[in-house]
Amino acid sequence: MKSKKIKNIACITFVIIGIFYSNIVTGNASIKTTRNSKSGNNNINETSKKEDSQVNTTEENKIDKITYTYGDDGFFRTKEFKDGKNHILIENDKMILISEKDTDGDGLLDYMEELMGYNKNKKDTDGDGLNDGFEYKYLNTDVLKKDSDGNGILDADEDYDKDGVSNIKEQELGTNPNSVDSDNDGLTDYEEINKYHTNPLNHDTDKDGLSDNEEIKLGLDPNKAKTDGVTIDSERLFEQSADESIKSRGVLESYNWLSPSISGKVHHDISDNVGLELAEYPSFKDNKGVVSDILKYKTSYDIPVKLTFSYKTYYLGDIKNLTIVSYIEGELKIVDTTIDTTNKKIYGMIEDAGEYFVIDIDKFLKEYGIDVFAGMSTWRDVPGSKMNEKTKMFINLLNILENKDKKTYNIEKIRGKLGFKEIDLKSFRKKLLKKPKEEYWLILDDYSRIRLKGKIADIKSNDTDRDGLTDAEELGIGVDIDMSDYINLLLDRHSIPRENYNGEKSIIVWGFYSNPTELDTDFDGLPDGNIRYSDISEYFDEED
Question: At what angle do helices 389-404 and 411-418 cross, to 10 degrees?
Fold first, then answer.
């Protein structure tokens, strides 16, 4: 530990008041000024002719630079310059002479050593093997004592950063005695020096493009650019599984029954090049068909990797309905998915960064108004179904009625009730003749569902969120999105011929400038219509 004297002089400058520099004459000089900003980091250089400035100079001691320092209040504080021999600071009209000489070459200037009581002619004042500058700059040791803490171990033999390398060894190698890993390559200084014999000051000892730590992880030789003697190590592909460090805290702490992981045959350390976190504002968070967390995948690769969802508990629904999907730049796509019930894994190959999640196709489509199993033109026995001959008969009746008049009969509602189970004949007639309830739901082009307070036909006059804009002004146009890929995948999973399906195959999604159900879509503190909150406060107490 440094002495009290040393601690008190950390910022002391050797000041000589009233010293007149010898052999100095007065004259005009062309000088280069540097004005330091308040932060002390930004310099503005400008050369100017200072005709009215009294600058001390001689031919022998030519001034090449003057630095002006300003305080936080913007006022001039100090002027600093070098004359070739000395470092001179003028502060508040007082001259401060700072010698830049380091007689013993220990890293501390002579004037500092004189102020602190060190021997400026001896690199190691206390004779413990450590240079004065090394002890003062890097170690919390007393430059005047061989054993600063009095524990019987010389300061040189202590291990300040606890990395297994002594202080004297760190001084010898030039490593940082304050850092376990001087070159930040993931290997400790001790491992590099004693185990792998790599350069602790270079994160890539063999300069092959892989850090020393990456090479160790991949089973390569960090001292050879071509471990196999043929291909540069950084260009080789290795089958790897990413560790848990790729997952954000939200993913790690999630209680979802599906646990994600990333693996693949890639170059470099996969854990340094991919990442998984929870999507911040997922469009599908309220969709009951989404059964996993909605993950945001990050990658620096341009090659595919495997995204796997593992599970321990069984899915309460039909696991054949599950698939991985991607949502990237507003486009929803199915990922070719394998369901391995033996090893309890669901996986697929992915490449681009974006959102990925698992859906139950049946439930997912129902959220958007498509009921695949209710949309059959002909039916046949399906293993595990409870459909009997009477059920089939009434389904055929529904098909006839549907072709006759959809509006008179609640066809789709009844068809859903009949799906793969016996019907209640007593309630059939009542349910059949019950007219469907008119709904005012819309799907936005980010696939979020919203409910308007008026009929869709009346969007030009309705203002659902009362923000001063009609629903039509907030919405764009509706576009048909083909959902056949999802429907066909579900039918294929259940071995049902695709031609048996006769229901809806597309949904309408609406572009939008702002959300017609959100008063302040962009959270800027103003309603979307830029009206004042006071103008609409009367509506807040009204019931929906």
Answer: 160
Consecutive H or E run containing 264: strand 259-266
Q: pTM for the complete prediction?
A: 0.66
Q: What tokens were used for 70? A: 């300003």
- Separation in Å, CA 418 to CA 143, 278, 312: 89, 38, 33
Report CA-CA distances (Å) from 311 to 293, 314, 340: 13, 7, 11
Beta-strand ranges (E) seen in 9-42 are 25-36
SS (H, E, C) 43-86: EEEEEEEEEEEEEEECCCCCCCEEEEEECCCCCEEEEEEECCCC
pLDDT in tens, 389-410: 555 555 566 555 555 554 444 5
Nearest C-alpha neighbor of 324 from the set 314, 315, 337: 337
pLDDT tens column, 372-394: 887 665 544 444 444 445 555 55
Q: Which residue has the tokens 């460090």?
A: 245
Q: Residue 335 is inside which H or E element, if any?
A: strand 331-335
Say how far apart CA 270 and CA 249 lie, in whole Å.
19
215 — alpha (psi -120 to 50), left (phi > 0) or beta? alpha
> Which tokens sit at 371?
């009921």
Residue from 282, 269, 275 nearest 249 by CA: 275
